[in-house]
Specification:
Blueprint (H helix, E strand, L loop, with lengths): L6 H18 L6 H7 L1 H16 L5 H15 L2 E2 L4 E2 L4 E2 L6 E2 L4 E2 L4 E2 L4 E3 L11 E2 L4 E2 L4 E3 L3 E2 L4 E2 L4 E2 L8 E3 L4 E3 L16
Parallel strand pairs: 1-4, 2-5, 3-6, 4-7, 5-8, 6-9, 7-10, 8-11, 9-12, 10-13, 12-14
Antiparallel strand pairs: 14-15
Length: about 190
């Protein structure tokens, strides 16, 4: 997971995010349209600034305030301490919650209503780790310090409380691993698995 430290890195990240959103959103018509109207992109861009503040002396309160402003504007709540990789895309955005100790890899896509939440009140790693290339369907809940393996797909409204292996499809409440029925090179919308 890449962390951004320089202004040029931030500009490059914005360009990457826009390109990733264009690839994943068939309704997108231009980078300008996305930059002006995509709440998922706005949320991640604000998160990057809040995350940078979080690591600074006396930066935690401003980081939390910035995160709350983003939540009010976008409907997406990302704790400033959460670690999020490159080319992250939240389609629609509304209702997404990403907890404090969550770790999200590169090229991950979330649909609206996804929760990466905790199951413990302990001050420890209590939120999910989502590896590179994962797609998480609308309304899915991934709870606790579980790992979602690289390239996995989580179906809409699934409740995941155990690790999901790489390239697996997890569906249901509680989530179970579904046998593959598509070619591994195909990106299948997880909503079809409900």
């Amino acid at each position: 997971m890449a962390l951004l430290n320089r202004p040029l890195d931030a500009l490059a990240a914005v360009r990457e995010d826009l390109a990733a959103a264009r690839r994943r959103d068939p309704a997108a018509t231009s980078d300008v349209q996305l930059a002006l109207t995509a709440p998922g992109l706005h949320a991640i861009w604000v998160h990057r600034a809040a995350h940078a503040l979080w690591g600074r002396r006396r930066g935690r309160l401003p980081a939390l305030m910035l995160a709350q402003a983003a939540r009010a504007a976008t409907g997406v709540e990302i704790h400033p301490a959460a670690r999020i990789g490159r080319r992250f895309f939240i389609d629609h955005g509304m209702g997404v919650v990403i907890g404090e100790t969550a770790e999200v890899g590169d090229d991950v896509m979330l649909y609206h209503g996804v929760t990466l939440g905790g199951r413990s009140m302990e001050r420890t790693k209590r939120h999910p780790t989502v590896e590179d290339g994962v797609v998480i369907g609308s309304g899915a809940r991934i709870l606790g310090p579980v790992t979602i393996g690289e390239g996995a797909q989580i179906g809409a409204n699934a409740v995941v409380v155990k690790d999901v292996p790489a390239d697996a499809i997890a569906v249901g409440i509680p989530a179970r691993i579904r046998p593959h029925v598509a070619h591994p090179d195909e990106l299948v919308d997880p909503a079809i698995w409900i």
